[in-house]
Amino acid sequence: MYLNIGGGFVVRYEDIVAVFDMDNSTWSRITRDALAAAEKRGEVVNAAEDLPRSFILCSGASGKKVYLSQLSSAAISRRSPI
Predict the structure, then answer these.
(1) Total domain count for the chain?
(2) What range does the domain containing 38 cover?
(3) Among 39, 62, 69, 73, which residue's Cβ finds the most Cβ atoms within 10 Å?
(4) Which residue from 11, 23, 8, 7 is spatially nearest to 56, judged by alpha carbons?
(5) What are phi and psi of 10, to 5 degrees?
(6) How many Cα atoms are found within 13 Å in the side-chain-facing hemisphere of 31?
(7) Contact assessment for residue 19 and residue 76, using Cβ atoms and an 8 Å cutoff
């Protein structure tokens, strides 16, 4: 099953590890450092056409990816099949 995260991007639901709200989670320096490290490794995919409101951490056959989404974490959770 696939989940539409906006911006024309879909991810496999089974690959999603976590969905984070950008405003609440980036207060932590650890989270900001982890996002910066993922960006340096080329693991960040910008699926947001505007400012990102959430980010989705995925791990699957293609490796680890962090998707920036313009959808809120609540909107993404409403789209999930579970």
Answers:
(1) 1
(2) 2-79
(3) 69
(4) 11
(5) -130, 145
(6) 16
(7) yes
